[in-house]
Amino acid sequence: MSRIGKQPIPIPSGVKFNLDAGAVTVNGPKGNLGMRVSPLVDVKVDDGTVFVTARDQSRQARAAQGLNRQLLSNLVVGVSAGFQRVLEINGVGYRAESKGKALHLALGYSHPVVFDLPEGVQAKVDKQTVITLESADRQALGEAAAAIRKLRPPEPYKGKGIKYAEERIRRKAGKAVGAAS
Q1: Domain C-terminal end among 25, 57, 80
Q2: Looking at the structure, do residues 63 and 133 belong to the same domain, yes or no?
């Protein structure tokens, strides 16, 4: 059995969990999210706790149990506390600015890059080099962060580019200067 799938999901106060014929909707202070549950698993709500069980012991059902349990947990945490991802910009002249639902980035190109944020994702820019993305939807947040990072990935020689705050860039040595052969 799935170890993660066995764990119950506690529902915090202020969060409403609705189960309707294979579809789950979760409402909370940070927003409303929903998903379709796999037909290989059963979802039960009992005394403010959600349980996900596999319908049989096949490999697919056990895998679906762990996956659906984690996706449901992400919905509950997202509408109650939300998720955030921090990106750092390194490089001379590289900066970001938040204007409404768009990020305006100067990344060393001949033109400024405008990144439109997806629905449900908010951005804050601190010191022009730290971007904090926040959302209730963990998947949309991760996709937006990856798309912003992809605009100028960090390079290993000088470390310039956009990286995740917890990411470590392995630096490479440049070519040897002055070595006579």
Answers
A1: 80
A2: no
Residue numbers of the domain that contains 120? 83-164
Query: 60-101: per-residue pLDDT in tens?
Result: 988 989 999 999 999 999 998 889 999 999 888 889 998 888
Same domain, 124 and 138: yes
**What string of H, E and C letters represents the secondary structure of 41-91?**
EEEEEECCEEEEEECCCCHHHHHHHHHHHHHHHHHHHHHHCCEEEEEEEEC
> Are 16 and 45 part of one and the same domain?
yes
Domain count, the chain: 2
What's the predicted TM-score (pTM) here? 0.81
